[in-house]
């Protein structure tokens, strides 16, 4: 698995430090609001579990599974809801937790769904941001790291369902997906 990585961008310690900073900011921002924290599966599962441990205020969590990349390194452009929320969002302050914003299509779709369900507010936190990939205008409220224009894996992010368990974020060697 490690042989398939071209370059490690951020290691586990660097990521944990950043997650802690994000958790502190979010704890201040959402004080007294009992946010519903939504993990966008599958990619955000590791960030979500690390992040909520650094948040010091009461919150609720729920999960939504959406997919648009499948076995490819390019978005299909079609965001499919594979698992919906169990919790009503009407009147709630929502914090969406994402692993990466690339084209922006996944999050713009999700924000639209939550606003149509009458959420009181929708805030975005992403661990990684790849602005060069954007197809729609979208900016996270809180972000961890800005990444170069390369396909990355690890810390929850996959290629064809592999590499999610790497404890760092790294660039996948193009020969892995070009063969
Ligand atoms: O900004 P975008 O171009 O939409 O890309 C970001 C989304 O793509 C990935 O999900 P994917 O569809 O691969 O599903 P997964 O989380 O199950 O891997 C990632 O986890 C984000 O949710
Ligand atoms: Mg994926």
TrEMBL record:
<comment type="pathway">
    <text>Purine metabolism; IMP biosynthesis via salvage pathway; IMP from hypoxanthine: step 1/1.</text>
</comment>
<keyword id="KW-0479">Metal-binding</keyword>
<dbReference type="InterPro" id="IPR000836">
    <property type="entry name" value="PRTase_dom"/>
</dbReference>
<protein>
    <recommendedName>
        <fullName>Hypoxanthine phosphoribosyltransferase</fullName>
        <ecNumber>2.4.2.8</ecNumber>
    </recommendedName>
</protein>
<feature type="domain" description="Phosphoribosyltransferase">
    <location>
        <begin position="9"/>
        <end position="159"/>
    </location>
</feature>
<dbReference type="InterPro" id="IPR005904">
    <property type="entry name" value="Hxn_phspho_trans"/>
</dbReference>
<keyword id="KW-0328">Glycosyltransferase</keyword>
<keyword id="KW-0808">Transferase</keyword>
<dbReference type="GO" id="GO:0016757">
    <property type="term" value="F:glycosyltransferase activity"/>
</dbReference>
<comment type="function">
    <text>Purine salvage pathway enzyme that catalyzes the transfer of the ribosyl-5-phosphate group from 5-phospho-alpha-D-ribose 1-diphosphate (PRPP) to the N9 position of the 6-oxopurines hypoxanthine and guanine to form the corresponding ribonucleotides IMP (inosine 5'-monophosphate) and GMP (guanosine 5'-monophosphate), with the release of PPi.</text>
</comment>
<dbReference type="InterPro" id="IPR050408">
    <property type="entry name" value="HGPRT"/>
</dbReference>
<dbReference type="Pfam" id="PF00156">
    <property type="entry name" value="Pribosyltran"/>
</dbReference>
<keyword id="KW-0963">Cytoplasm</keyword>
<comment type="pathway">
    <text>Purine metabolism; GMP biosynthesis via salvage pathway; GMP from guanine: step 1/1.</text>
</comment>
<keyword id="KW-0547">Nucleotide-binding</keyword>
<keyword id="KW-0460">Magnesium</keyword>
<comment type="similarity">
    <text>Belongs to the purine/pyrimidine phosphoribosyltransferase family.</text>
</comment>
<keyword id="KW-0660">Purine salvage</keyword>
<dbReference type="InterPro" id="IPR029057">
    <property type="entry name" value="PRTase-like"/>
</dbReference>
């Amino acid at each position: 698995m490690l042989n398939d990585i071209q370059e490690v961008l951020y290691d586990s310690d660097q990521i944990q430090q950043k997650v802690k900073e994000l958790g502190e900011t979010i704890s201040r921002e959402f004080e007294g609001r009992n946010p519903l924290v939504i993990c966008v599966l599958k990619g955000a599962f590791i960030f979500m579990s690390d992040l909520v441990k650094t948040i010091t205020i009461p919150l609720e969590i729920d999960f939504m599974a959406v997919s648009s990349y499948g076995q490819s390194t390019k978005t299909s452009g079609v965001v499919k809801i594979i698992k919906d929320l169990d919790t009503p969002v009407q009147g709630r302050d929502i914090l969406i937790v994402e692993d990466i914003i690339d084209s922006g299509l996944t999050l713009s779709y999700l924000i639209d769904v939550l606003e149509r369900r009458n959420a009181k507010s929708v805030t975005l936190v992403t661990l990684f941001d790849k602005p060069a990939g954007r197809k729609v205008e979208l900016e996270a409220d809180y972000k961890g790291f800005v990444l170069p224009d390369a396909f990355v894996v690890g810390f929850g992010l996959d290629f064809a369902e592999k590499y999610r368990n790497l404890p760092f974020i790294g660039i996948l060697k193009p020969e892995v997906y070009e063969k």
